[in-house]
Here is the input.
Amino acid sequence: MQTPPALSGFILVFVALVMTIGASNAQTPPASTPTTSTPATGGAKITLNVAPGDPPGEWHRAARDYANTRYSPLDQINAQNVANLKVAWTFSDGTHNGHEAAPLVIDNTMYLVTPFPNVAYALDLTKAGVPIKWTFEPNPAPLATGKACCDTVNRGGVYVNGKIIYNLLDDHTVAVDAKTGKEVWRTKMGNVENGETMTMAPFAVGNKVYVGNSGGELGVWGYLAALDVDTGKELWRAYSTGTDEQVRIGSDFKPFYSWMKGKDLGKTSWPAGMWKHGGGAVWAWVSYDPDLNLIYYGTSNPGPRVPAQRPGYNLWTSTVFARDANTGMARWAYQFTPHDQWDYDGVNEDVLMDATIDGKARKVLVHFDRNAYAYTIDRATGEVLVAAPFAYLNWSTGIDMKTGMPVVNPAMEPKPNIKLSNVCPPDIGGKDWQPSAVSPRTGLIYAGIFNICMDVTDHPQSYIAGTPYDGMEMQRHPAPGGNWGEFMAWNPATGKKSWTIKEKFMTMSGVLATAGDVVFYGTADGWFRGVDARSGKVLWSYKLGSGVIGQPITYLGPDKKQYVAVYSGVGGAAMVSSKMKGFPPRGSTLYVFSINGESPHSAAGMLTTEGGAAAAEPDATVSGRR
Amino acid sequence: MNIDYRCLKQAIAAAAALLVLAACHPSEGGSTAITPTGLPSEGLIARVPLSDFAGIASTTLGSTVANPYEGQQQAIAEGKNLYVKLNCAGCHLYNGKGSMGPDLTDSYWRYGGTPANIYKSIFEGRPHGMPAWGRALPPEDIWKIVSYIESLGGSIKPDQYQAALQGDRPNEQIAPEVAAAAKAEETTAPGIAEALKASSSSTTAPAQASDTQATETSGANHAQGKQ
Here is the structure.
């Protein structure tokens, strides 16, 4: 048996685990939907609602379920056999910008969405070589490539009502028939000439699909909108700044903390008129609680990024909203970073779970903010129950639990045209958009986080449509310890780390948790790892062609065997570390792993391609060259 | 684009390409390419190519427009100020190393790195996100920004226009056959004239025939002038 060179350093571990497997049954059937918790050492007692209850072997939306758990009930791959994972098949999509999307798997078909030019592919998992079933080329406007702040990424699609719905970089949302690959509808959501782009994976509940814009660095007016799944018609739009009417704040809006109560705060917490270009873009995740019928999502940093230009709290930027899923009316909000001075977007995922905190059962959302605090918040009321730093920070000395306000360290407040050194975390935060995963079996939530600081000089800006409304000159460097990345297991009830793995390179991939008690994540230099969910022991590492900033998923193939899939294609914010020795080239390859690399897709003998369409040949021209 | 080959030929033949080109341009309205403010005229800049010339192996045309503020410290300082104030740094960064937009400090230029090429990229914008500033800024300001970009060290000198197109580097070796061919300046292959002649013999609708004829005539002049 040949061992890939990348595994040579792990031969001892590998051999040991092969021996273990011999004595165990590696082919247990998929576990039923888990609802209860058996906490690991350091874990919390938690319960997950995994609605809408998609088939265990499929993956219909980026986070798998409404609660954003990224937890799969599959357990064929487990701590005993994960070391035997090998490549089963690969697919190169021919685009070389940052690959941040999660693949989707429905009915033995895998669906992929590429970075700009946002080609969608359907791959036939039932045939040898996994051929292309259909190719959809939306041809978005090239102008968008130079308006996107942080690479021309896309975070994937959502499967709903027989359609794959996703966002194009040029501010259009498209729905594609999952069977035929034909466009069903296309809705223009914004004007790319104003610096507005779209990168988020849409989120769907019932007949509504929720989308928002990107462009917090370009002075956009942030919003979340609900579109009709079948027609693409916009049903409502809730802006992140402006009057209560524009923000969809009404009489049933009840923020937990009094400083967020008042009329038109989205307008009056800004200097006159500045809310119009105040950012609050909605470019990452939405989650949904079917019992409360509320959706949750965060808003981006305020604009411009020079705080001296916009005294005030700058509501509702860097904020989490809870909204009625039907009407979009806000029920509560909580601003993580009032008057954000460091580019601490509040967009990171809100993972919903029921947890026992101080002996009481609470319905909570757990959120690792860019500002490096982890929040456990009562998702019915917006009360902060736990707030604790998860990454190195010095901008704040703590959270006042009476008001929910962070205590700002005045020494770390930037002033115009003065260089301020060692501000931690930097603009991209203690953690960026890369989503965490939670396991009800361990009571731990797992996240790739950063250990980075910045030197920053603010340059006051004027708003010029279509150009950055930014003003931060930065150099990023590792925080104490020297490592750029870290992968951690976090107890959401206590606000403490259970275990942690320091990574030399950035950890900007999504996380996948499984019922096999293996957690998967990747690094910016291209290592894809499987970790013991309880102990944090690295059980398996595989070096991919490019860095991993995608979102790993797992599914059952037509052979009813478990596969793990992840994109390898570095880019996005991970390029802040691109000058590190050993930093990989860009890439475009989806890797799919199985135990021993076995699959119906490869075999001895003459296999041939029985495809339904040819690949796109996208224009590879990109905005920058980094 | 309607190319006036006769003008082009005159320009190539005459060493003073600037003056002749301007004189041949009907919209130029003057006999000089230098405007009263001392800046290259819009028409002249418009004719600076972004690529190689069809049918012409070697020409100095790409090298003819220099930055009127070349090397002037005051202009560089003003250009830097504009670069920051107009949010250029948001895309190209404060050190010019690029992020949303390309690196401006190296020798890789997608849309040309001579001062005139850079001027045009600012004036016209570029399709991957660079806005067009020609309506917003007077030419003086654009040239000052060009001065600042040149001061970052990565642009291409006007006389290196063709060398940059061909990927040449200082101090590189040149194969003898290539060096010998390069000495034959202003070489033009007869291909374009031949191609146009061939098209005139094909059947065309009457309305198009006169256009074809006119093109052929100028093409023929062009070929003739080569001999």
Observations:
- Residues 62 and 102 of chain A are 5 Å apart (CA to CA).
